[in-house]
Amino acid sequence: MSATTVKTATPAVSEKARPRMSFAKGLLLLAGALVLISVVSALVSSGKQPAFYTITSSGQVAAALSMAVPIGLAGLGGLWAERAGVVNIGLEGMMILGTFFGAWAGYQTNPWMGVLAGVLGGAVGGLIHAIATVTFGVDHIISGVAINILALGATTYLAKRWFGPLADEGGSPKQSPSVDDIKDFTVPGLSDWLADIEKHHWFFVSDLAGLIGGLVTNISALTILAIALVVGSYFVLWKTSFGLRLRSCGENPTAAESLGVNVYLYKYAAVVTSGALAGLAGVFLALVRSHIYNEGQTGGRGYIGLAAMLFGNWRPGGLAMGAGLFGYSDALQLRNGGATVHALLLLVAIGLALLALWKLYRKNLVAAGVNAAFAAGLIVWYLASDTVPNDLVSATPYLVTLLVMAFAAQRLRMPKADGKPYRKGQGK
Amino acid sequence: MHALVGENGAGKSTLMKILYGMQRPDEGTIAIDGETVELHSPADAISRGVGMVHQHFMLADNFTVLENVTLGAEKLYGIGAKARAKIMEISDAYGLGVRPDALVEDLGVADRQRVEILKVLYRGARTLILDEPTAVLVPQEVDALFDNLRELKSEGLTVIFISHKLGEVLSVADDITVIRRGTTVASVEPSQTTPKQLAELMVGSELPSPETRESTVTDIPMLTVDGLTLCAVDADGMRRAVLDDIALTIRKGEVLGIAGVEGNGQAELVEAIMGMRTPDGGTITLDGRDISKLPTRTRREDGIGYIPEDRHRHGLLLEAPLWENRILGHVTEAPNSRRGLLDPSGARRDTERIVAEYDVRTPGIEVTAASLSGGNQQKLIIGREMSHHPKLLIAAHPTRGVDVGAQTQIWDQIREARREGLAVLLISADLDELIGLSDTLRVMYRGRLVADADPATITPEELGSAMTGAAAGHLETAEGPEEDR
Amino acid sequence: GKSDSGGGDKGVGLAFDVGGRGDHSFNDSAAKGFDKAKADFKIGGKDLTAKDGDTEADRYEKLASLAEAGYNPVIAVGYKYNASLAKAAAKYPDTNFAIVDSVVDAKNVTNLVYTENESSYLAGVAAALKSKSHKVGFIGGTSSPLIKKFAGGYKQGVLDTDPKAKVDVQWVAPDEKGFGMPDKGKDIADGMLSNGVDVIYSAAGGSGAGAIEATAGKKGAWSIGVDSDQYNDPGLAKYKHTIMTSAIKNVDVSVYEFIKSVVKDKKPLTGTQAFSLKDGGVALTYTGGFIDDIKPKIEAAKKDIIDGKIKVTDTYKD
Amino acid sequence: MTSHDTAGASASWLRRIDKERVVLAVAAPVLALAAAFLVTALVLVATGKEPFNAFSVMFDYGVKSDSMIYIANKATTYFLAGLAVAVGFRMNLFNIGIDGQYRLAAFFAAAVGGALNLPGFVQIPLIILVAMLVGAMWASIAGLLKVYRGVSEVISTIMLNSLATSLITYLLVDGRLGVLDKSTNVISTEPLPSSSHFFTIPTGSGLDPVWGFIVIAALAGIGFWFVLGRTRFGFDLRAVGRSESAAQASGVNVKRMVITSMVLSGAMAGLVGMPTVLNDTHMFTADFPSTVGFTGIAIALLGRNNPVGIALASMLWAFLERGANRLEFEGYDKEIVGVMQGVIVLCVVIAYELVRRYGLKRQQQRVGAELAAQAKKQEVAA
Ligand SMILES: Nc1ncnc2c1ncn2[C@@H]1O[C@H](COP(=O)(O)OP(=O)(O)OP(=O)(O)O)[C@@H](O)[C@H]1O
Ligand SMILES: Nc1ncnc2c1ncn2[C@@H]1O[C@H](COP(=O)(O)OP(=O)(O)OP(=O)(O)O)[C@@H](O)[C@H]1O
Ligand SMILES: [Mg+2]
Ligand SMILES: [Mg+2]
User: Where in the cell does this protein reside (chain A) (predicted)?
Assistant: First the structure.
């Protein structure tokens, strides 16, 4: 070895702040997307323009929001549990409990009692999960799967017994009688004004008006509650000592225990809250998205909520984005079918092409090549067809989610002790 | 300042955990300040002014220092600005140099240790328990730690600490308790005892020494590493070199020791040689064959034995029985498999042999690896690796957390292997071990081999200061081993 | 199944499709005929319900256990029973079977099928006449052959009446779940309405309720019900002022007639009994009086279909 | 996922059997089943139904010979689904995508089978091969995404399930890969030629035969056991499941192993639909049984990811479903069986965990006690 002098080495640890998908960055990205839509819709032939207009229409945005809320709430449930170290694959079952008890109590009394009952129903599901995983130390996934089976079994059984005889009120073994509406809100004046602007299809301005319009027109009280819960969860989990303790149980429960934190208690609290949130997601499906309990109503949204949480890297903002993305693309395909999804092809292609350029600039040739190839493929598809076949349109939200996950490479930062069994007094 | 010594599994940690309320005693009493107390949980202990720094750090990696410190003590100063100010105040008062907003994940061992101590002080502890605080520190850091502790002592705090390093125990403790298999066997005063006596009290045998006698170094190169460079993307998305142009040669019969503060690339060097990481440049040659591009499995088949730094993460399947652990890493080799199929009976038979030969204390080979104590797990790993007659043995911290009895055995085995012409790459934080066993010493600092030294002449203190980057080049002008080129 | 009338013949056996009694749709319609027959002829009976994930073996078991226990006739509601009914009919040659919506070629099986495309055609005529925007919509539960029969007939009816009109056809989901998603039905209808569609016909089971709800929220828009007269559906009472008409399928009538032919007349209906516009097996309702103004045109179309002047397609292509 | 494998059959196996362990192993499921029945009985009583009659109806009916045949046939499918899930679980991969994989595989296999008319001994293996290939390819998407893009397999397989549904709906259309029978309203793939019908095992006059595919399923189970328990590859796979880091250090290419096991899991999923296609319907219809993949998760978990356990669990599941059909006939709500299934899974896993923990404690105590004894002896000797 010839080194006789110490060379100035790179610092082992740099002190820079960790990059995060900040709120500001998200807004910027959204604005960019809006501009892109405006530009493209101004450029395509007039026959194709309506398909682009619907992409930012207020109806689309409102529908996207209402589709995103149950997914986001379920995801938030997942977040609470996993931040305390308990994987909750039983969200689906807890949502089912929410739909059932929400509609049952809502029908018996009033919708707000329904909300309460649904949340309680979900919380009971959470409690069972907590007993199994925290007290008995059962594998979290097994317990979750069992709860999904149990919740489905119990509600179908009870629905048949309780709703079956209510045929005159519209009940059936698979469906509850309808429940009254939960109040919704419209910002007076603003909503109409925005709707007016939207109609003119002005460059960018109308797109923005559609976006905001969708967010201020006929917003259900539960939607507002859901948004508040996302923000509130962030606040509680990251800005309070309760949250600190709860998260510590997901990162290093033995350490938490050694500092006098009652880990079991916090895990219980987190998992029960998780169930309650999933229950609320179910209530939203039963009482806002429709007015009834309906067997199979959750349709796997619990799992999708879980996916949204993973998508969002175990953070409330991220999971809201994941839920939003899924809700948006689901609403898009549902409301407007093939033509609009067809328009989306072009937008995604352009987006990918831009991403390819960025990768090229960063000298990541492989990624640039892959992105460019996908972009080219989509453009060819767009040009070669007029619409996306109706039978394929239903795939949109799933495909979009998968593609976004695949292209947005990310470093997952799951809580360190997530899913690991923990026993009191066994730390080494 | 009270020191507690004893062999592995003597019950030191268990006793301390009882003092800290993490475990409940079956009988007996605990008195704090003359008052008999009953501790049901750490919270009880904390409220009575007992604080503990555990043998294995109790820190959440994804949390900031601030979060780690305030956790569980939010009532004192909240979790915000007031807490931050308090942390800075304590840190400054005792010269701990702790930064509240750093992520623990990014901290080195010594820094983590200080965070642990700060955690205890923050809670206003009057009795401080430190379980093996020095095991992972270099001498300078140990000195700094003891300076801190003395300062605390002078303020009237009581410090209880546990250590396997008898020298330091004798130099800093005011009182020493020796325990063995769960009972106190002696209470001694440091001034009236010697390390030798202490060791005898502990294990009933003589204090071992890692001293290597005659040199067995040949001039046939076994492992040659040249220009090895490895970059990694850190948390900030910045690429930086964790291994920077590493060059070294280990000959048959030679033990090459690498000294360095943890986190300076030793682990990465080992992983690169093992093929667990793909380097960005450089070549690795084993016994004349270029293995740079070969997968880990082939490298192992070609004769690399591996005693990993973290046996739980890299050396064992904790939930699997011993005989399956004997197969791990050598599944393609006899006696573990024949023609693609496992040979469980062959593996079982050989496991029995290893258990007997290497004195693995276990009632049988069907018990899970997890039910063995750490020292016995280590012996099993060493037995396994040596059974395949490696050409090169990579030994990372082979005696970490292992008591003096087992240490002797392990050192003997390394020496034995070396005599048979094995090349050994030794990485250790225990500088006595490093100096005692090695034929050649290298110092690693920030991904580079910055210095070399002759184990015959260097002292741990000199080596320690080189490890912190204070010196470079050849550390002694006295005649040392030949340069590689 | 309460206590059955004793003796060898226990009465009627009936196996519902998924959804079963209380689905406010064709299962309920079958139940109505079944209940009426039981009451009128003072016989016993037992009904069983399919569940999601049932296999051939499960369906066969239902039919076989009914026949085995001595129920006669045995009626299978839904085309899914096709294969299992064929098997059961062979095993129990002395039992009279009937299947709704499908055809099984066996001596002891009566096939009760309906020309849903014809009633849907009339729905299309009504939609085209009532639409002001010349844009109408169709929402199907899923793109199964049966539902495509509805879609095809409807589209043809619309275009024959108003060639300039646009028909927006959408499916709720790619599988059977699409029949139980009222919320998604609502979203689809909402999307159609905001694109200017002002009449929506949905053949989507429970999901249709959502579409009807959405349509009721838009001024001047109409919905068209399906299978039963949804104007009279208690669950939809709130929206009935916008349910312009329903394309009904009188499963109850055919089930009743079949039971009667076996139990009372002792001369079972045989072969394929197609219930069409001609015999009132399918029809367009005038309840509520919303389409009374265009009744002549609808009746004319109906006559043309019955006379064979209009040949209604029985499938739909995108 | 905790995976527990049975010790193998070597000459000294008898020695290793430990009476206590056997008792514990049997105790867990027995206790759990008893608890599950108790809970179900309580639910029945609470809703005003007589429980014991319900159970006796289920048991009496469940052991009738035609019920046994039903159970054997249905369990064949469930067993394969459980195995497919277990391959992933054994190495900590949560493949929720069995559902999509097996439906897509069955669809393409049926389509290929319907399009060809080769001798059975060529065509049947070909159909099975197509199914395994399609299943493997669909699953490999999730594997590749995980390895190269870091996408959690939980997300990707959920999405791929729905994509499979859409794809099948798109292709199963008159003029694409479907044929429509207008009179029956059934859309399906072209039916298989009768030469491609799999053999059946006759069971007696008037009774349905047992599907011959049960033989393939048994072979798959043995193959599963052999590959995982007796080959180097299986050892590597289990090693990854137990500790990814230790496996990597031991020389396993973990990334490749992720893809390989996803592919294996998918190939196994491809088999799930085969008993139905080859032995039963001989075509793929739009109402091809779905959600079997999800049932497979419960069954794999109940069977502790080991073939014998999975076989027992799948038979239990089939038995319960058979019983459900009968319960309805006897005037009970068959939905109670859903409650039963959920309670059973929960009770079984809790019982297993308690027993496991007890066993571990016993083992540690024994290790400790024996070591102490050894040490004493040494001391005395010294
Ligand atoms: N409840 C118990 N009763 C008796 N023995 C036990 C119990 N729990 C653990 N043991 C035994 O104690 C040992 C556990 O080893 P552990 O890792 O705690 O040892 P250690 O003292 O840290 O040793 P080392 O220093 O070698 O790591 C094993 O031999 C285990 O069988
Ligand atoms: N409740 C218990 N009953 C019996 N044995 C136990 C119990 N708890 C711990 N042990 C065992 O007692 C021994 C003492 O372990 P302890 O960790 O205290 O040792 P130690 O002296 O700190 O060793 P080391 O030097 O390795 O840290 C271990 O073998 C441990 O597993
Ligand atoms: Mg200790
Ligand atoms: Mg230890």
Answer: Cell membrane
Asked if D365 has any chain B CB less than 8 Å from its own CB, the reply is: no
Residue nearest to atom 28 of ligand 2 (CA): B9
C-alpha to C-alpha distance for D173 and D180, rounded to whole angstroms: 8
Mean pLDDT by 10 residues, chain B (485 residues): 81 85 84 86 87 85 91 87 91 84 82 87 88 76 83 88 82 87 83 80 64 75 92 67 90 91 85 90 91 92 91 88 94 88 93 90 84 84 92 90 77 86 89 87 89 85 79 59 40
A56 to chain C, any CB pair closer than 8 A? The answer is: no
Residue D11 is predicted with a pLDDT of 41
| Backbone angles phi and psi of A185, in degrees to 5 | -125, 145
Do residues D222 and D307 lie in contact, with contact meaning Cβ atoms separated by under 8 Å? yes
The two tokens of residue B347 are 């593996």
Query: Which of B164, B318, B373, B379 to probe ligand 1 with, by most ligand atoms within 8 A of CB?
Result: B373
Q: Is the pLDDT of residue C291 over 70?
A: yes
**Domains, chain A, ranges and CATH?**
59-327 (1.10.3470)
| Minimal C-alpha gap between C111 and chain D (Å) | 10
> If you average pLDDT over residues D64-71, what whole number do you get?
92
Whether the predicted pLDDT of A46 surpasses 90: no
* Ligand 1 pocket by Cβ (under 6 Å): B 8-9, 371-375, 401; D 364-365, 367-368, 371
Is the previous residue joined to D209 through a cis bond, with omega within 30 degrees of 0?
no
Domain ranges for chain D: 33-46+334-372, 50-331
Q: Do B236 and A16 touch (CB under 8 A)?
A: yes
Per-residue pLDDT tens over the stretch D322-362 = 998 888 888 888 888 888 888 888 888 888 888 888 877 77
Q: How far is the CA of B11 from the centre of ligand 1 (A)?
A: 9
**∠ CA(B252), CA(B253), CA(B256), 5° rounding?**
90
Looking at residue C138, the DSSP 8-state letter turns out to be E
Global pTM reads: 0.89
Nearest-Cα distance to chain A for B286, in Å, is: 19
Helix, strand, coil shares, percent, chain B, to 5: 35, 25, 40
Model confidence pLDDT, tens digit, residues A224-256: 999 999 999 999 999 999 999 999 999 999 899
Residue position matching structure tokens 């500088």: B431
Q: How many Å apart are CA D154 and CA A140, to the nearest integer?
A: 14
- CB atoms inside a 10 Å sphere around CB A171: 25
- Please name the residue of chain A whose CA is at the shortest distance from the CA of residue D303: A142
d(CA D306, CA D25): 14
Using 50, 70 and 90 to split pLDDT, how confident is the model at A276?
Answer: very high
> What distance in Å separates the CA atoms of residue A19 and residue C30, rounded to the nearest whole number?
63
Q: CA–CA separation, D127 vs B307, rounded Å?
A: 49
Q: For residues C66 and C11, what is the distance between their CA atoms, to the nearest angstrom?
A: 10
Contact A405 D151 (CB under 8 A): yes
Indicate the average pLDDT of chain D.
88
**Helix H segments across D306-335?**
307-329
Q: Give residue A193 CA to ligand 2 midpoint distance, Å.
A: 74
Window 304-323 of D: residues touching C by CB (8 A cutoff) are 321-322
- What gap in Å lies between CA A162 and CA A209, rounded to an integer? 46
Domain D50-331 falls in which CATH fold? ABC transporter involved in vitamin B12 uptake, BtuC (1.10.3470)
| Residues within 8 A of A (CB atoms), B 16-45 only | 20, 22-23, 41-43
Which residues on A lie below 8 Å from C19 (Cβ)?
A: 174
Nearest CB to D232; choose among B331, B345, B368: B331
For residue A62, the chain C residue with the least C-alpha distance is C187
Q: Say whether the peptide bond before residue C73 is cis (omega within 30 degrees of 0).
A: yes
